[in-house]
Design goal:
Layout lengths: L1 H8 L9 H26 L6 H8 L3 H7 L3 H17 L9 H18 L1 H10 L4 H24 L8 H21 L8 H18 L7
Helix pairs in contact: 1-2, 2-3, 2-5, 2-7, 6-9, 6-10, 8-9
Length: about 220
Protein backbone atom coordinates (compact mmCIF):
# COMPACT_ATOMS: atom_id res chain seq x y z
CA UNK A 1 0.00 0.00 0.00
CA UNK A 2 2.84 2.38 0.80
CA UNK A 3 4.46 1.76 -2.58
CA UNK A 4 1.17 2.31 -4.38
CA UNK A 5 0.55 5.54 -2.49
CA UNK A 6 4.05 6.79 -3.23
CA UNK A 7 3.80 6.01 -6.91
CA UNK A 8 0.54 7.87 -7.34
CA UNK A 9 1.85 10.95 -5.61
CA UNK A 10 4.58 11.20 -8.20
CA UNK A 11 1.92 11.67 -10.84
CA UNK A 12 2.21 10.71 -14.47
CA UNK A 13 5.64 9.50 -15.54
CA UNK A 14 7.80 11.87 -17.60
CA UNK A 15 9.05 11.29 -21.10
CA UNK A 16 12.04 9.37 -19.77
CA UNK A 17 9.87 6.66 -18.18
CA UNK A 18 9.95 3.39 -20.08
CA UNK A 19 6.73 1.67 -21.21
CA UNK A 20 7.55 -1.23 -18.89
CA UNK A 21 7.89 1.08 -15.88
CA UNK A 22 4.62 2.80 -16.74
CA UNK A 23 2.83 -0.53 -17.08
CA UNK A 24 4.17 -1.69 -13.73
CA UNK A 25 3.10 1.56 -12.07
CA UNK A 26 -0.41 1.29 -13.48
CA UNK A 27 -0.71 -2.34 -12.37
CA UNK A 28 0.43 -1.37 -8.90
CA UNK A 29 -2.09 1.47 -8.65
CA UNK A 30 -4.92 -0.73 -9.94
CA UNK A 31 -4.08 -3.43 -7.39
CA UNK A 32 -4.00 -0.84 -4.61
CA UNK A 33 -7.55 0.17 -5.55
CA UNK A 34 -8.70 -3.46 -5.59
CA UNK A 35 -7.07 -4.21 -2.22
CA UNK A 36 -8.63 -1.14 -0.64
CA UNK A 37 -12.05 -1.92 -2.10
CA UNK A 38 -12.27 -5.55 -1.01
CA UNK A 39 -11.31 -4.66 2.57
CA UNK A 40 -13.87 -1.84 2.71
CA UNK A 41 -16.59 -3.98 1.10
CA UNK A 42 -16.07 -6.64 3.74
CA UNK A 43 -15.82 -4.19 6.64
CA UNK A 44 -18.66 -1.80 5.77
CA UNK A 45 -20.66 -3.69 3.16
CA UNK A 46 -20.70 -3.24 -0.60
CA UNK A 47 -23.57 -0.75 -0.62
CA UNK A 48 -22.11 1.30 2.21
CA UNK A 49 -18.80 1.84 0.43
CA UNK A 50 -18.40 4.62 -2.12
CA UNK A 51 -15.69 5.62 -4.57
CA UNK A 52 -14.43 8.38 -2.21
CA UNK A 53 -13.89 5.75 0.49
CA UNK A 54 -11.93 3.52 -1.88
CA UNK A 55 -9.61 6.23 -3.19
CA UNK A 56 -8.97 7.54 0.33
CA UNK A 57 -7.98 4.07 1.53
CA UNK A 58 -5.82 3.47 -1.55
CA UNK A 59 -4.10 6.83 -1.25
CA UNK A 60 -4.97 8.04 -4.76
CA UNK A 61 -7.14 10.76 -6.24
CA UNK A 62 -10.69 10.22 -7.43
CA UNK A 63 -9.55 11.06 -10.96
CA UNK A 64 -7.06 8.22 -10.77
CA UNK A 65 -9.86 5.82 -9.86
CA UNK A 66 -11.73 6.63 -13.07
CA UNK A 67 -8.65 5.86 -15.13
CA UNK A 68 -9.14 2.23 -14.15
CA UNK A 69 -12.82 1.80 -13.28
CA UNK A 70 -15.99 3.59 -14.28
CA UNK A 71 -17.99 2.59 -11.21
CA UNK A 72 -17.75 0.84 -7.87
CA UNK A 73 -19.42 -2.20 -9.45
CA UNK A 74 -16.56 -2.49 -11.95
CA UNK A 75 -14.24 -3.02 -9.00
CA UNK A 76 -16.39 -5.85 -7.68
CA UNK A 77 -16.49 -7.51 -11.10
CA UNK A 78 -12.71 -7.20 -11.44
CA UNK A 79 -12.27 -8.89 -8.06
CA UNK A 80 -14.65 -11.67 -9.09
CA UNK A 81 -12.89 -12.23 -12.41
CA UNK A 82 -9.50 -12.44 -10.70
CA UNK A 83 -10.80 -15.15 -8.35
CA UNK A 84 -12.40 -17.02 -11.26
CA UNK A 85 -9.11 -16.94 -13.15
CA UNK A 86 -7.40 -18.56 -10.17
CA UNK A 87 -10.06 -21.30 -10.15
CA UNK A 88 -9.62 -21.89 -13.89
CA UNK A 89 -5.91 -22.54 -13.35
CA UNK A 90 -6.68 -25.43 -11.02
CA UNK A 91 -5.54 -28.75 -12.57
CA UNK A 92 -8.34 -31.26 -13.24
CA UNK A 93 -8.81 -34.20 -10.89
CA UNK A 94 -7.48 -37.35 -12.56
CA UNK A 95 -8.53 -39.98 -10.04
CA UNK A 96 -11.39 -42.30 -10.98
CA UNK A 97 -12.06 -43.04 -7.31
CA UNK A 98 -15.08 -41.10 -6.06
CA UNK A 99 -13.77 -40.91 -2.51
CA UNK A 100 -10.47 -39.39 -3.57
CA UNK A 101 -12.20 -36.89 -5.83
CA UNK A 102 -14.65 -35.96 -3.08
CA UNK A 103 -11.89 -35.37 -0.53
CA UNK A 104 -9.87 -33.33 -3.02
CA UNK A 105 -12.87 -31.21 -4.04
CA UNK A 106 -13.93 -30.47 -0.47
CA UNK A 107 -10.38 -29.66 0.65
CA UNK A 108 -9.83 -27.42 -2.37
CA UNK A 109 -13.06 -25.54 -1.75
CA UNK A 110 -12.26 -24.99 1.92
CA UNK A 111 -8.75 -23.79 1.13
CA UNK A 112 -10.03 -21.41 -1.56
CA UNK A 113 -12.69 -20.04 0.78
CA UNK A 114 -10.01 -19.41 3.39
CA UNK A 115 -7.85 -17.75 0.75
CA UNK A 116 -10.69 -15.52 -0.46
CA UNK A 117 -12.65 -15.29 2.79
CA UNK A 118 -12.97 -11.50 2.59
CA UNK A 119 -14.18 -11.66 -0.99
CA UNK A 120 -16.53 -14.55 -0.18
CA UNK A 121 -18.43 -12.32 2.23
CA UNK A 122 -18.63 -9.57 -0.38
CA UNK A 123 -19.99 -11.99 -3.00
CA UNK A 124 -22.54 -13.35 -0.58
CA UNK A 125 -23.86 -9.87 0.19
CA UNK A 126 -23.67 -8.53 -3.39
CA UNK A 127 -25.45 -11.55 -4.89
CA UNK A 128 -28.65 -10.47 -3.15
CA UNK A 129 -28.66 -7.22 -5.15
CA UNK A 130 -26.56 -7.82 -8.26
CA UNK A 131 -28.00 -10.24 -10.81
CA UNK A 132 -24.70 -10.76 -12.65
CA UNK A 133 -22.88 -11.74 -9.48
CA UNK A 134 -25.75 -14.05 -8.53
CA UNK A 135 -25.68 -15.71 -11.97
CA UNK A 136 -21.91 -16.13 -11.77
CA UNK A 137 -22.20 -17.88 -8.41
CA UNK A 138 -25.06 -20.11 -9.63
CA UNK A 139 -23.07 -21.19 -12.68
CA UNK A 140 -20.05 -22.13 -10.59
CA UNK A 141 -22.31 -24.03 -8.18
CA UNK A 142 -24.05 -25.86 -11.04
CA UNK A 143 -20.73 -27.02 -12.48
CA UNK A 144 -19.63 -28.51 -9.16
CA UNK A 145 -23.04 -30.12 -8.60
CA UNK A 146 -22.98 -31.68 -12.07
CA UNK A 147 -19.57 -33.23 -11.37
CA UNK A 148 -20.83 -34.83 -8.17
CA UNK A 149 -24.07 -35.92 -9.86
CA UNK A 150 -22.08 -37.78 -12.51
CA UNK A 151 -19.99 -39.51 -9.86
CA UNK A 152 -23.14 -40.58 -8.00
CA UNK A 153 -24.69 -41.84 -11.21
CA UNK A 154 -21.62 -43.98 -11.87
CA UNK A 155 -21.55 -45.39 -8.35
CA UNK A 156 -23.11 -48.85 -8.04
CA UNK A 157 -23.74 -48.44 -4.31
CA UNK A 158 -25.70 -45.19 -4.66
CA UNK A 159 -28.84 -46.83 -6.02
CA UNK A 160 -32.02 -44.98 -5.08
CA UNK A 161 -30.25 -41.61 -4.78
CA UNK A 162 -31.24 -39.02 -7.35
CA UNK A 163 -27.90 -37.87 -8.85
CA UNK A 164 -28.97 -34.26 -9.43
CA UNK A 165 -30.42 -33.84 -5.95
CA UNK A 166 -27.43 -35.61 -4.43
CA UNK A 167 -24.97 -33.38 -6.30
CA UNK A 168 -26.77 -30.24 -5.18
CA UNK A 169 -26.89 -31.48 -1.59
CA UNK A 170 -23.14 -32.16 -1.49
CA UNK A 171 -22.33 -28.72 -2.89
CA UNK A 172 -24.71 -27.09 -0.41
CA UNK A 173 -23.01 -28.87 2.48
CA UNK A 174 -19.55 -27.78 1.32
CA UNK A 175 -20.58 -24.17 0.75
CA UNK A 176 -22.44 -23.83 4.03
CA UNK A 177 -19.62 -25.36 6.05
CA UNK A 178 -17.00 -23.17 4.33
CA UNK A 179 -19.02 -19.99 4.78
CA UNK A 180 -19.84 -20.60 8.44
CA UNK A 181 -16.32 -21.75 9.28
CA UNK A 182 -14.22 -19.16 7.53
CA UNK A 183 -16.43 -16.17 6.73
CA UNK A 184 -18.67 -16.16 9.80
CA UNK A 185 -15.71 -17.44 11.85
CA UNK A 186 -17.69 -20.17 13.59
CA UNK A 187 -15.04 -22.82 12.95
CA UNK A 188 -12.39 -23.94 15.47
CA UNK A 189 -9.35 -22.94 13.39
CA UNK A 190 -7.93 -21.84 10.06
CA UNK A 191 -4.64 -23.70 9.84
CA UNK A 192 -3.93 -26.19 7.06
CA UNK A 193 -4.50 -29.05 9.46
CA UNK A 194 -7.94 -27.70 10.36
CA UNK A 195 -9.07 -27.64 6.72
CA UNK A 196 -7.78 -31.18 6.19
CA UNK A 197 -9.73 -32.45 9.21
CA UNK A 198 -12.87 -30.65 8.02
CA UNK A 199 -12.49 -32.04 4.49
CA UNK A 200 -12.00 -35.57 5.78
CA UNK A 201 -14.98 -35.33 8.16
CA UNK A 202 -17.34 -34.01 5.51
CA UNK A 203 -16.09 -36.59 3.01
CA UNK A 204 -16.84 -39.43 5.44
CA UNK A 205 -20.34 -38.06 6.08
CA UNK A 206 -21.14 -37.86 2.36
CA UNK A 207 -19.64 -41.24 1.50
CA UNK A 208 -21.50 -43.02 4.27
CA UNK A 209 -24.73 -41.38 3.16
CA UNK A 210 -24.08 -42.78 -0.34
CA UNK A 211 -23.29 -46.23 1.02
CA UNK A 212 -19.62 -46.01 0.02
CA UNK A 213 -16.62 -47.28 1.95
CA UNK A 214 -15.33 -44.21 3.76
CA UNK A 215 -12.10 -45.97 4.76
CA UNK A 216 -10.71 -46.22 1.24
Amino acid sequence: MTMARASTKRGAPGKSASPAADTARRAQTRQALLDAAVNLFAERGYHETGVPDIVRAAGVSQGTFYQYFSHRRDVLMALSQAAQAAVAERPPLRSADFGERLRAEINWYLVETLRYQTLAKVWHDAAAYDREIAVMMRKARAIRAAQFALAIQQSKTAAGIDPDIGGMAIVAMIEELAYRWFVEEEGPGRATGDTLVAAETLSILVMRALGLDAEK
